[in-house]
Amino acid sequence: MSPRGRFLVATLSGLVLAGLVHVVVVLSIPRLSETDALSRARSSEALDHPMPVNTVAAGDAPATAEAWLPIPDPSVAVGLCAYDLADGPMRVSARTGPLMMSLAVHGRRGAFYAVTDQAAVRGALDLVVLTRAQYDEALANADEDEVSHDVRIVAPDSKGYVVVRVIAALPSQRPAADAAVQAVSCTVDSPAEDAKPGG
Fold first, then answer.
1. What's the longest Cα–Cα distance across the chain?
2. Residue ranges of the domains in the chain?
3. I need a labelling partner for 108 at 20 to 30 A (CA). Which of 1, 129, 143, 177 fits?
4. For every one of its 199 residues, what pLDDT tens digit does the chain have, with 9 covering 90 and above?
5. pTM of the model
6. Distance of CA 192 to the CA centre of its chain
7. Which residue pairs from 53-59 have beta carbons closer than 8 angstroms and sit at least 24 positions apart in sequence?
8. CB atoms within 10 A of CB 61
């Protein structure tokens, strides 16, 4: 083989190897990272309400909540609750008000369920995130005459988190939006009621 041919083979081999290393590193980052969203959310597991995320500072005062995003949206109050379904199903209860609210349930692979306050029944949103086994148990123990307004969501992973967002259309509504996020309840539940899984 000529020197030029050897050079081309070496160059192409190096490019292919570099490409493979790049792909492996990029695909490994979510599993190896200790500061991904799920890992950060785990600190909220002991709370019974959402942990604030990116609270916008007033004036020159520093924000006290965790700053996860470089530029938080001043019109959106955000909080999250982590869950580990090994402890039992996670119940998220919210009361709707004049400000738009949304709840999104995330697993390791991203969001798999979302709902807004438009789905509220009599001003209440009640989500129960559970495993397939917990859902089957809840279905088996359900009282046929009892009507449930819970939305049961079968999660693909046992660990994840729920993101609560409340929109403040005006700057003066931001305190009310923060309060609405904090008013959401995140608790470990026991499957007892009959309902269909959402999604």
1. 84
2. 1-32, 37-188
3. 177
4. 788 888 888 899 999 999 999 998 887 766 665 556 666 666 666 678 888 886 544 444 444 445 565 567 888 999 989 899 998 999 999 999 999 999 999 988 889 999 999 988 888 999 999 999 999 988 888 777 666 678 899 999 899 999 999 999 898 999 999 999 999 999 987 544 444 445 4
5. 0.70
6. 24
7. 53/78, 53/79, 53/80, 54/78, 55/178, 56/174
8. 7
- Which tokens belong to 169? 């259309």
Tell me if 39 sits within 8 A of 136, measured CB to CB: no
- The rounded distance, in Å, linking the Cα atoms of 129 and 44 is 16
Instruction: For residue 18, give every residue at least 6 positions away whose Cβ sits within 8 Å of its Cβ, in sequence order, or none.
Output: none
For residue 73, the 8-state DSSP code is -
Dihedral pair phi/psi, residue 65, rounded to 5°: -80, 170
